[in-house]
Amino acid sequence: MAPKDEKYHDMDETLILDSIHKWLERDVAPYAMDLEHSDTYPVEMVEQMKDMGLFGATVSQEWGGLGLSASTYSKVVTMISEVWMSLTGIFNSHLMMATAVEKFGTEEQKQRFLPRFVTGELRGGTGLTEPDAGTDLQGIRTKAVRDGDHYIINGTKTWITNSIEGSCFALLTKTDIKADPPRKGMSLFIVEKGAGFEISKRFEKLGYKGIDSGEMVFTDFRVPVDNLIGGEEGRGFYQTVGGLELGRINVASRSVGIAKRALDEAVRYSQERSTFGKPICQHQAIQLKLAEMATRYESSRLLLEQAANAYDEGRRCDLEAGMAKYSASEAAIENSLEAMRIHGGYGYSKEFIVERLYRDAPLMAIGEGTNEMQKIIIARQLIERNKI
Q1: Fewest CB within 10 angstroms: 51, 153, 160, 373, which?
Q2: What is the β-pairing status of strands 186-192 and 168-174?
Q3: Cα gap 380→226, rounded to integer Å
Q4: pLDDT tens per residue across span 204-256
Q5: Using CA atoms, how far apart are residues 346 and 354, in angstroms rounded to an integer?
C-alpha cells in the first residue's frame, strides 16, 4: 500500500477510535455497572451503536458499511471491552452473519440483506451451537428438508447470542443427513423470525450480563429457497468455518481488553493502597504480579495484531487466530484473578470492576472454540506449515 494510503488509513482509524473513546466515556462507563448488575439489555446503547455504524463495522463500504480492516476492528473491540465487554457481543455475532453473506452469498442476497444489516434494521447473529453439538459442528441435528420453493427446518439451537433481541440469524443445518463426511451435507441459511421459530429459554449466566443468550426452537419452520446462502447445498460448514477466524480475532480482542483493564486497575489500586507504611506497589510480591500481568497483556496484544494483519492480507490465519485467542483468553483469566487478589477484599465486592472482569473472563476460553481445541488447531497447522 502506498504511503499516502497508509496516511489516510491511519487518520481514519484515529478518528474512529477517538469517536468510540468519547462515546464510552460519555454514554457507557457511567451506566455499565448498573446495567450489568441488573442484567438489563442496553437498549439506548444499541441505538447509539447503530448510529455509529458498528453493525456494519466490517461490511464493505459498497453496501454502506464502515469497511474496517480486522486490525482496526480489533482495536475497537478491545477498547469497548475495557469498559464493558458485553457490548461487543451484540455487534460481533451480527457481523459474523453479515460476513457469511458478503463472502459467500449470491448477489441478490447481498443486495437484500447487507444494507439492512449495516443499519441494524435486521440484527441478529449466528445459530451454530446445539444441546449436543458445540465445538463439534458436524454433530448438529437441526435439519432442513426441501419442500418446493421452501425448506422446512426442525431442530434446536442453544446459547445463541442476540436470540431474544435479534430478528435475523445465519442458521447452520443438515440438508443431507447421509453425507460422508457429515460436513458435506451441511447448509447455511439466513432466517428471520416467524411462525415455527420460538425462543424456549433465556440463560442466566455467571458473566456476560446485559446481553441475551437463549435457546431457539424450530418446528416445521419454513424458509425460502432464496435464503440458502450461496444458493448451493452442502457449503454451510465451510462458510461457517470461514467466519470463525474473524470470530476468534474478536474473542482475542475482547480478552486483550479485559486483560488490559485488569492490569490498569491493579496498577492504580496498588499505588493507592498502603500496608506496613508504604503503598503495596512497593512490596516485591505485588511487583512480581504486576510484571507478570503486564507481560501477559503485551504478549497477547502482539499475537492479536499478528492475527489481524494476516486476516487483512487475505492469508489463511487459523494458526494465528488460534494462538491469539488462546493466549489472550488465558491472559484475561489470569489477569482478572490477580487483579482481584491485589485488591484483596475489595476485589470481591461488586462495587469494583475487577469482580466483573473476573466473571466475564472465563467465557473467553470457551467461546468461538474452546482453548483445548485451539491448541489442537495450532499444533496441526504448525505441522502442516513445517512438513519435512
Answers
A1: 51
A2: antiparallel
A3: 37
A4: 999 999 999 999 999 999 999 999 999 999 999 999 987 788 889 999 999 99
A5: 9
Work out the end-to-end distance of the chain between its first and last CA atoms, rounded to an integer number of angstroms.
34
Secondary structure of residue 153 in the 3-state scheme: strand
Of residues 265, 317, 305, the one with CA closest to residue 289: 265
* Cα–Cα distance for residue pair 209/86, rounded to 1 Å: 6
Angle at the Cα of 331 from the Cα atoms of 325 and 334, rounded to 5 degrees: 140
Sign of CA dihedral 220, 222, 227, 232: positive
Map grid coordinates 488447531 to a residue: 377
The residues near 381 (Cβ < 8 Å, ≥ 6 apart) are 318, 319, 322
Which run of H or of E encompasses 14? helix 3-23
Mean pLDDT of the chain: 94
Active-site residues: which are they?
Answer: 368
What pLDDT is recorded for position 7?
A: 42
Distance of CA 137 to CAs 60, 134, 219, Å? 28, 6, 21
pLDDT digits (tens, 9 = 90+) for 20-31: 999 999 999 999
Residue in the block written with cell 426452537: 217
Tell me the one-letter amino acid at 231: G
Torsions phi, psi of 290, nearest 5?
-60, -40
Judge whether 377 and 318 are in contact, CB under 8 Å: yes
Question: Side chain identity at 274, as an amino acid letter?
Answer: S
Return the SS3 of 108: helix
Name all domains of the chain by residue range, CATH numbers in brackets: 3-119 (1.10.540.10), 126-236 (2.40.110.10), 238-385 (1.20.140.10)
CA 108 to chain centre: 27
Residue in 171, 345, 361, 157 with CA at minimum distance from that of residue 258 = 361
The torsion of the CA quartet 64, 68, 75, 19, rounded to 10 degrees, works out to -40
Parallel, antiparallel, or unpaired: how do β-strands 197-202 and 186-192 relate?
unpaired
- Please, are residues 101 and 227 in contact by the beta-carbon 8 Å criterion? no
Residue with cell 499505588: 271
343-379 pLDDT, tens per residue? 999 999 999 999 999 999 999 999 888 999 999 999 9
Report the distance separating Cα 179 and Cα 109, nearest Å. 26
